[in-house]
């Protein structure tokens, strides 16, 4: 019955690593040589999957799940060396680089430096009278979101980055005369924002093409919700649970769970699914189509929200006082498929999963996810399912494998007087359990292959600050590590 929606996994293995974590002398991972070097490392390991987090421009808390746009790319990932190769920056301009920390992203310092460099590069780009066929094609291909997003970011800059409902009322509510006025007033800044998106698009697609050439598929991430302070809610307020002034009425989250006794209050505005249905979910179709142009497979974050989602009044301080509301369900995916054909979706089906969620996932044969840190007995048991799911030691929301072991297993071993077991050995034993499982895909965060402690954790749900910062040093991707990984890949036919 799933038909065109079916994504059947073949046995494979890969790494979860967001590009911000790549090494770079410019303070944050970039889409240049460092990214190609990482692809080379994956190939040397025999790994064929590279999973990333959302590639969108980060907003509140530096979170890729609180982005200024569900369509645009993160300008901080743009490679300055590539801009130099294109002739938009000079060697002299890149000669003086601040001293950035190697193992974390200092977002404030990085933003300050890269913004100066990107604006300098735009001056060089602006001087080209004929921007070329690629630029025109990019403009035409992205008419659904590009101009609106560029104006949104130009306005954000003008109004000192306050949320859009604090702008002048006329432009906050998108009155036609106000849009015309601000488009003219901020035309240069709008063109700068379009330049950033063009460069991101060109650079990411070059990395993706390089990965394809080396037999590696990319797995992207589709957050179920968008940030309140985003071009999406500003442009399409009628599609979201907002009042007449654009303020959120109902927001998303999850009830108390493994991560938090008070639940998780994400604060993202909820969709008006009835409104979205009227044009066959056009905004969703365009969003997924844009992401399918960037990656090979899409991980659908919080898949259970399409069956039923946790609705919390915007006035609440925690997610406790919410309620389950029916989602768009089967019809949503049927409509998407009728327009887009095969949907290469991987369902993040973690958390409170009901039989109805399982039924929706199975109806379309969407592969699901399992996480070792949740001690999934089904994954470890003797079930005879076909393994059409991805198995992780942990995700971006989990502690590192070593950090988890120290808080659980090692704490118990210490009480039993057996604390002398080597942490690294146990990490690799658990990685091997994932690799030898019947799961078609085995995906390991790079932190776990490196056996790093909790300081290398990517995100702690429900907290703001010190998340999304971890980076690795180039020297840690050794030939010895690649050989150890490849040995497991070969041993278990991945």
Secondary structure: helix percent: 25-40%
- Beta fraction of the residues? 5-15%
Number of beta strands? 12
User: How would you write the strand order of the largest sheet?
Assistant: 9-6-3-2-1-12-11-10
Q: What does the average pLDDT come to?
A: 92
For the biggest sheet, the summary is: 8 strands, parallel
How does the helix and strand content classify structurally? alpha/beta
CATH topology: TIM Barrel
Give the low-confidence spans: 1-5
CATH architecture term: Alpha-Beta Barrel
Query: What is the count of helical runs?
Result: 19
CATH superfamily: Glycosidases
> Termini distance?
29 Å
Q: What top-tier CATH class fits best?
A: Alpha Beta
